[in-house]
Amino acid sequence: MRANDKKRHKARPQRGFSILELIVTIGILTTVIAVVTDGIMQIEKKSASDVNKVGLAQESRQFMDQILRDLRQCGYPSLAMFDPASGVTSSSSNVAIGLISFSSSAIQFEADMDGSGVNEVYIQVVAPASGICPCTVQRGTVLKSVGGTPAYYTELDNVMAQTIFTAYKYDGSAYDASSDSLSSIKNIGVMLYVQSPLPDSNQSSTTYPTTTMVSEVRINN
d(Cα 184, Cα 110) in Å, to the nearest integer? Predict the structure, then answer.
């Protein structure tokens, strides 16, 4: 009798998952996958946003460093470095006279920046036809011995302010173009306010990362 009961027990078919259990399982898996996928997407968006911000800061920093390097060479070599008996004057092609013109959006000066000869250096903010930034900062150089208009190259895009230069006199007061001479300028301040061309994916499609850099350099003028 017991043997027959055991045989009937063994022959009983195994019970599988019910439809309800399958639906619940699939629902749980779908939720887990959705959460994981959303997390991955958020990480990717944050990573892309961080890369965008770092790139913006690096590009702005490189241009700032270049401007400061150029300005430090302003007025070098000066007329005082030559023997008066040599007949060299400030108009000579191997003498840098320093600042030629200055405004809050453009600057022109003479300098021997790399030992190849005195260059006339032009740095200017160029606004679009609308007159409203974002603007472009351009730089151009031409040998003093050659003269003429230099070829301009874009150094920095998406600058959000046309005013990037400030000047200070020997006593630390602000330079006033209406009453002060260029020769009174001793320090030049540079401020870059730059906006990324790509929106911040961490926030919204209308929010753009920005970076601001401010520095000052003493010049030989």
Answer: 16
Q: In 3D, which of 130, 139, 124, 133 has the Cα closest to residue 210?
A: 133
pLDDT tens digit string along 177-213?
Answer: 999 999 999 999 999 999 998 888 777 778 899 999 9
Tokens standing for 10? 């063994």
- Collapsed DSSP state (helix, strand, coil) of residue 114: coil
Record the tokens describing residue 82, joined without a space: 């030559």
Distance between terminal CA atoms of the chain? Answer: 117
Asked whether residue 5 is domain-assigned, the answer is no
Domain enclosing residue 94, as ranges: 50-80+90-218
Number of domains in the chain: 1
Task: Report the sign of the C-alpha dihedral through residues 116, 68, 54, 132, in that order.
Answer: negative
pLDDT in tens, 114-165: 888 999 999 999 999 999 999 999 999 999 999 898 999 999 999 999 999 9
Could you tell me if residue 3 is inside a domain?
Answer: no
Alpha carbons within 13 A on the beta-carbon side of 113: 19
Q: Which residues contact 40 (CB under 8 A, 6 or more apart)?
A: none
HEC states along 58-98? HHHHHHHHHHHHHHHCECCCCHHHCCHHHCCCCCCCCCCCC
- Residue appearing with tokens 């003493």: 218
Q: Degrees (nearest 5) of the Cα angle 167, 65, 67? A: 45
Tell me the pTM: 0.78
